[in-house]
Amino acid sequence: MGRYEKAIEYYEQARLIASQMKNRTSEAMSLRNLGIAYISMSRTENAIKYYEQALAIHRDLKNRAGEGITLVSIGNSYQSLSRYEKAIEYYEQGVTICHEVRNQTGEANGLANLGLAYASLGRFEKAIDYDEQAITIFRELRNRRSEAGTLGNLGLAYGSLGRHEKSN
Length: 168
Fold this sequence. Notes:
The protein is mainly α. It is built from 9 helices and no strands. It folds into 2 domains: 1-62, Serine Threonine Protein Phosphatase 5, Tetratricopeptide repeat (Alpha Horseshoe); 63-168, Tetratricopeptide repeat domain (Serine Threonine Protein Phosphatase 5, Tetratricopeptide repeat, Alpha Horseshoe), CATH 1.25.40. The relative contact order is 0.08.
C-alpha cells in the first residue's frame, strides 16, 4: 500500500520483541524486512545497514538459506547505487549459497542480476552467460514473468554486441 514508514515502525517493534525473546531467526527476518522497506523508499544506504545486520545473524546461526537470499538482496542494493563490482561480489556469494541449499528462485534471480550488473559494466559476453543460466532455471520453475524479463535483457546484451540476429 506504499505505507513504508508504518511498515518500518512495525518491523522495528517486531525486531525489538524478537531480540528481547532471543529469537535470532525472527530478528534476522525483521532486519531483512526493514531493508526491503528502506529499498522501497529509495533509502539504499539504510537498507544495506539492515541487510548487513541480518546477514551477520544468519551467518552466526549457520542459516545458509537466509544468508544466500540476504547476500542477493545486498547485491541488489549495491546495483541500485551503480556500484556494480560490489554488487557482483555479493551476487556471486548469494548464487553459490542459493545453489547449495537448492533455492532455485534465489539462484535464478541472482544469476539474472549478475547478467544486469555485467551488462552495466559493458561485459556483455559474461552478461549473456548469466542470463542464459537464469532463463534455464526460470523455465524449470515455470516463472514466465522472470523468464520474459531476462529474455529481454539477453536481447539487449546481444544487441549491444551487434549480434542482432540473436537479439530479436
